[in-house]
Amino acid sequence: MDHGIAVTLDLPFTEAVEQVRTALAEQGFGILTEIDVRATLRAKLDEEIEDYLILGACNPPLAHRALEADRHIGLLLPCNVVVRAVDGGTLVEAMDPQLLVQVTGKPELAPVADEAATRLRAALAALTG
Q1: Can you give the pTM of this predicted structure?
Q2: Environment class of residue 13 by beta-carbon count within 10 Å: exposed (0-12), middle (13-18) or buried (19+)?
Q3: Which residues form the DUF302 domain (predicted)?
């Protein structure tokens, strides 16, 4: 089972992050959380990895609809979007919202997952590079 939607950009990491933020905002997603995995591993374990950022993206109307269908869905929110440096560019991966339906087994979440997936795919498709 594939867990994400991905695109590789021929852009430096910092530029890609800015494009991701803009593209998500254009699709109604705000960033609730931001985890700089590279900085955390460096500070806590003295380990080095590539630039690696996890953005917790949330579209409030979609989150509300999902919570109305299943209050436990908060365990799976927000939608994670990972931006990480790869050889020659930056990889952007978004969690596939269909996982919400698969994990919970609640078909009433399907319309919310469909819309979230459409919006995340549109955001990734809008990225250039």
Answers
A1: 0.93
A2: buried
A3: 35-97
79-86 β-sheet, strand order:
4-9, 89-95, 79-86, 52-58, 30-36
Set out the domains of the chain in order of their start, with CATH numbers.
Answer: 4-121 (3.30.310.70)
pLDDT of 79-120, one tens digit each?
999 999 999 899 999 999 999 999 999 999 999 999 999 999
Could you report how far apart the first and last alpha carbons of the chain are, in Å?
A: 28
**Could you tell me which residues come within 8 angstroms of residue 1 by beta carbon, excluding any fewer than 6 positions away?**
102
